[in-house]
Amino acid sequence: xxxxxPLLIREGKPTPFFTFxxxxxxxxxxxxxxxRSLSNYATYPPGWxxxxxxxxxxxxxxxxxxxxxxxxxxxxxxRKPGETGYKIPRGGMFEYVSGANFFxxxxxxxxxxxxxxxxxxxxxxxxxxxxxxxxxxxxxx
Length: 141
Description:
This protein has 141 residues and is mainly α. It has five helices and no strands.
């Protein structure tokens, strides 16, 4: 999402380079942390992929990702080319939550945390909740 979404948006306010670099560094560090945790330290019993905890987490991750992608699509298509101004998104989860894209991403990472059952994945899910939760609240207001 960090690489694809910015390439798909048509117009908008430019992102400051420093913000881009910080986001890139965070994604690299978090990807390394999650990958190292799963490949070097996490141990799972035989049959883990059939465990209700993993299945529930995987479904939560998949559902969150679908909500996130669909919500981003709605947001990208709010304005016609050349239009400016604020528009309220409609459709999908925006009918239930004003920050559907944020909700989808939070659900995605809590699903990931449940499927992985590592302290690192839970830490990232909680960081996502606090950061995106505050952004969602600002957007709602």
